[in-house]
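Its record is retained below.
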Amino acid sequence: MTSTGLVAAGAPPRTAAVPEHAVTGYWQNFDNGATVQKLKDVPDAYDIIAVSFAEATSVPGGLDFHLDPAVGYASADAFKADIRAKQAAGKSVIISVGGEKGAVSVSDDASAKNFADSLGRLMDVYGFDGVDIDLENGLDSTYMTKALKAVHAQHSDIVVTMAPQTIDMQSPQNEYFRTALNIKDFLTVVTTQYYNSGSMNGCDGKVYSQGTVDFLTSLACVQLEGGLAPSQVVIGVPASSRAAGGGYAPPSVVNAALDCLTQGKNCGSFKPSKIYPGLRGAMAWSTNWDAANGGAFAGQVGAHVHGLP
């Protein structure tokens, strides 16, 4: 470990490129009634696997990660071996920070440094390809930007994803949106959670109900017209009706939204003013809930994303 705490000698290379059209899935390091999986059980349809979640430490901004015994790994080495196997298959395995109950706070220079240093250590220890920012209890764009830029300076090939709630991406002035734009030069994707939100305003100013094609397309349009590249925009949905409190969209609806945004077909009443062929793809919460739902997301949405022109 160097004095910065970010790079360790012999750290595994993290060079897997995310495909032009990609599927992201969250892997649960806990048992909440969904199918319990090991990483090796995650279907090949998932190109980015976000390990959920890193935990806050007693140090402000600090992160740590511990395997939940409920997942069934005999050792951390077995988990690391599964990470390497996924990477050898061309997948990116990242560590997600936050979640619904996450309490990580990055609000000043000291906590930004602690976040960057501890994230760098987790990347080195486990071989993670990068990080997912899923902070659902507030985010400071100034200091999160500093933290992520510090990590990127040490790991130039880092995969960085963000999973804001729908309300967090309604305007480029929101802290989450602002952070995404601040790191646009190395941001991989934003996988907005298009669920658990109720009805929201689309980019045309009209109100749309969650779980519909119009909701997915009109809200993605806000980001597409607000400064993010199409390759940085991902449609995030629950993998089953049990995976969220509301907003489940079946695979047929997700696929129609992808077609509408990328090709201008299968739209609902909202039709974007232009098409975005480079739209990155879709995200599922979670691979575990997908397994509990018969693998419908991986099988149907995964195939559709990878078949996009």
